[in-house]
């Protein structure tokens, strides 16, 4: 009977989370994730098409061209969609966010569906607009004949590890020393991965990117490598960054909301109106929210009369935010 009650509670919790997700802002986020993945796959995978044999002025699909295209495409999509969906554009990113409790499972599942559909749609469009004589495998990722499957798995794990580590480093609100655009940093990490791994595995780093062309062309050889390798690499990188190199001073809750201190602050946290809280997508957009909160906390400190800071910080419940911002 007790187990039945727990099962019912779990089902009710999932239904509540699903209904909470069904609002205009969340639907816009899912649509944004779909479009971002579609555009990314269409233009980046399109760079792998080799026109050398049919074009009077050939532009072969070189490793450098492919690396630049993938990096720039991802960077531009992150810049455009970060405030709409968090701009994951990659199931490995989404699952890493779930593992580190920056995204709830319901939202993550819908994101995964949107990413896979977007990648498939982008690949289908590329298939339609590309002449049959130059389609080839249409950017399908496959393991080099010189590699074992284990070696290919490790390559995908390693290049995704470095990419996800950059994602977390550039979206960490505690990393105040970082300057410039997070989108550019992430794009460069993807280009680096391609410069290294294109001859090995095609440098996926993104299960959706591999899934789309595989569905359109029907080429599935060693396809599991491009799911297990990137996802495991993403989880290792996220865990290393969050729990060891940059441990949080506060206990993280789902969707990026941090727990207040025990006692009075905990009571205040339980009474907060969630409708007034900024929506978290577990991506780059959260950095902008955290930066604005940090500035507001610092502005509350009286520099001219430091003695007033103690009472003001306690009364407003902002002591922890200000301390973590310094």
From TrEMBL:
Keywords linked to the UniProt accession: Cell membrane, Cell projection, Endosome, Glycoprotein, Lipoprotein, Membrane, Palmitate, Phosphoprotein, Repeat, Transmembrane, Transmembrane helix, Transport
InterPro entries the UniProt entry points to: Aquaporin-like, Aquaporin_transptr, MIP, MIP_CS
BP term (GO), one: intracellular water homeostasis
Compartment list: Basolateral cell membrane; Cell membrane, Sarcolemma; Cell projection; Endosome membrane
A GO term, aspect molecular function: water channel activity
Residue stretches in coiled coil: none
Transmembrane segments: 29-49, 61-81, 109-129, 149-170, 182-203, 223-245
Topology in the lipid bilayer: Multi-pass membrane protein
Assembly notes: Homotetramer. The tetramers can form oligomeric arrays in membranes. The size of the oligomers differs between tissues and is smaller in skeletal muscle than in brain. Interaction between AQP4 oligomeric arrays in close-by cells can contribute to cell-cell adhesion. Part of a complex containing MLC1, TRPV4, HEPACAM and ATP1B1.
Protein name: Aquaporin-4
């Amino acid at each position: 009977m007790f187990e039945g009650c727990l099962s019912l509670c779990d089902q009710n919790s999932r239904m509540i989370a699903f209904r909470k997700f069904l609002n205009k802002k969340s639907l816009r986020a899912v649509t944004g994730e779909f479009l971002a993945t579609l555009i990314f796959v269409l233009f980046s995978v399109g760079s792998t098409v080799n026109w050398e044999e049919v074009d009077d002025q050939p532009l072969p699909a070189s490793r450098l061209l492919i690396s630049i295209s993938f990096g720039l495409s991802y960077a531009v999509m992150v810049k455009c969609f970060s405030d709409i969906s968090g701009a994951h554009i990659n199931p490995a990113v989404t699952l890493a966010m779930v593992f580190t409790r920056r995204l709830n499972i319901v939202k993550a599942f819908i994101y995964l569906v949107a990413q896979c559909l977007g990648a498939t749609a982008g690949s289908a469009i590329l298939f339609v607009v590309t002449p049959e004589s130059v389609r080839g495998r249409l950017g399908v990722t496959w393991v080099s004949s010189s590699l074992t499957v284990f070696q290919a798995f490790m390559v995908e794990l390693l290049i995704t590890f470095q990419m996800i580590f950059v994602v977390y480093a550039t979206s960490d609100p505690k990393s105040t020393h970082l300057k410039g655009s997070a989108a550019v940093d992430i794009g460069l990490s993807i280009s680096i991965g391609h410069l290294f791994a294109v001859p090995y595995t095609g440098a996926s780093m993104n299960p959706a990117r591999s899934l789309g062309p595989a569905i359109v062309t029907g080429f599935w050889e060693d396809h599991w490598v491009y799911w297990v390798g990137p996802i495991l690499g993403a989880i290792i990188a996220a865990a290393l960054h969050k729990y060891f190199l940059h441990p949080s001073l506060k206990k993280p809750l789902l969707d990026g909301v941090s727990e207040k201190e025990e006692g009075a602050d905990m009571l205040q946290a339980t009474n907060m109106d969630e409708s007034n809280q900024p929506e978290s997508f577990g991506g780059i957009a959260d950095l902008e929210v955290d930066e604005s909160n940090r500035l507001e906390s610092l502005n509350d400190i009286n520099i001219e009369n430091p003695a007033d800071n103690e009472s003001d910080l306690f009364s407003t419940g902002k002591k922890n935010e200000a301390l973590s911002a310094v």
